[in-house]
From TrEMBL:
Pfam families: BPD_transp_1 (PF00528). The keyword Cell membrane applies. The chain crosses the membrane at residues 6-26, 46-67, 104-126, 138-158, 197-219, 240-265, 300-320. The lineage of its organism: Bacteria, Bacillati, Actinomycetota, Actinomycetes, Propionibacteriales. It comes from the Bacteria. It is a multi-pass membrane protein. This is Sugar ABC transporter permease. Keywords: Cell membrane, Membrane, Transmembrane, Transmembrane helix, Transport. It is found in: Cell membrane. Residues 100-319 form the ABC transmembrane type-1 domain. InterPro entries: MetI-like, MetI-like_sf, UgpAE/MalFG_permease. One of its GO terms (biological process) is transmembrane transport. Belongs to the binding-protein-dependent transport system permease family. One of its GO terms (cellular component) is plasma membrane.
Length: 330
């Protein structure tokens, strides 16, 4: 443990030192230029490392992934061109179409529920005294500090199943057993995708606190004058929230929704740890892992990554445009 801690500390210090040296060198280079060029080019010298990092770690891998998605199904690096075979094979597979359906259910259910619960908690918590509000918000926000693997471990103890006659470790089956019922293999109950919704509950548990913090700050930022004017005009509390508060925090709601939506589209850890995609719980993120590492099918894995990127890009463009529109309106 001490060795790992020292290694992490040395790595951090080395990274900071390297960054300082890099910017010092770039600054010295800019100072060697003629004065009229120095003033123009110095800002570009400072943002050059960021652009280089984006090019090396984002743009280059994205381009390579796109190229590999049209190449051989097995082997890495892929050498044989196969055209769109990787895409057609995936999309014609019943298993992959079911994976897409499961992912769609996550997209449909989780972001909306997170926003609704986060807003509800924010509105209710704001009615408490300061000490009570802080305590409630701290408890609800705490799951955000847990990794998804850690959360899966915690919820594994909730959904755990043991055959009848054995002591039940899982919380739910402990309650069922105490009430005289037979234990249920919760994560194997795939009727109407019930087990997938149980996995979604874990992500809700982790993200409601995030939504609550942002939406609570947005609600507190609503001018009190508008609220008082609405009440003077005879609006009830429900009308005040629906017709005055919500329109003014629309930007924050959209930001939370899109942030959670992008996170949902990339979910992997929860499904991998809890079911590994078995019992009809597979999603796109886990399918990518299975294709790449288990099936050694890098071409298909690259095709899945490309489809995921194509799905995320329009959402990010919409978020950027919404943010710019809000900034322009201020």
């Amino acid at each position: 443990m001490l060795e790992k801690t020292l290694t992490a500390l040395i790595t951090v210090l080395a990274g900071i030192g390297a960054a300082l040296i890099l910017y010092w060198v770039l600054n010295k280079i800019s100072e060697l230029l003629p004065e009229k060029y120095e003033e123009r080019l110095k800002p570009w010298f400072y943002i050059l490392p960021a652009y280089a990092a984006i090019a090396i770690f984002v743009i280059y891998p994205a381009v390579q992934t796109f190229i590999y998605s049209f190449k051989t199904k097995v082997g890495f690096p892929a050498e044989t061109w196969t055209g769109i075979d990787n895409y057609t094979t995936l999309l014609s597979s019943d298993a992959f179409r079911q994976t897409l359906l499961n992912t769609f259910l996550w997209i449909l259910f989780v972001p909306v529920t997170v926003v609704v619960l986060g807003l509800l908690v924010a509105l209710l918590a704001d009615r408490l005294a300061t000490r009570g509000e802080n305590a409630v918000k701290t408890l609800i926000f705490m799951p955000m500090a847990i990794s998804m693997v850690g959360a899966a471990t915690v919820w594994g103890l909730v959904y755990d199943y043991r055959p009848p006659g054995r002591p039940q470790v899982g919380l739910l089956n402990g309650i069922v057993d105490a009430l005289g019922g037979d234990p249920i293999a919760w994560l194997q109950e795939n009727t109407l995708h019930f087990n997938s919704f149980l996995l979604m509950v874990m992500l809700l548990w982790m993200n409601v606190g995030f939504a609550m913090v942002l939406l609570s700050a947005a609600v507190k930022g609503v001018p009190t004058e508008t609220l008082e004017a609405a009440r003077i005009d005879g609006a009830g509390e429900r009308q005040v929230y629906l017709r005055v508060v919500l329109p003014q925090i629309k930007g924050s709601i959209i930001t939370v929704f899109i942030t959670v939506l992008i996170g949902v589209m990339k979910v992997f850890d929860i499904v991998f740890v809890m079911t590994n995609g078995n019992f009809n719980t597979n999603i796109v993120g886990n399918e990518f892992y299975l294709q790449f590492f288990n099936n050694n099918n890098q071409g298909a894995a690259a095709a899945i990554a490309v489809m995921l990127m194509l799905a995320v890009i329009p959402i990010m463009i919409y978020q950027v445009r919404t943010f710019r529109a809000e900034e322009a309106g201020r």
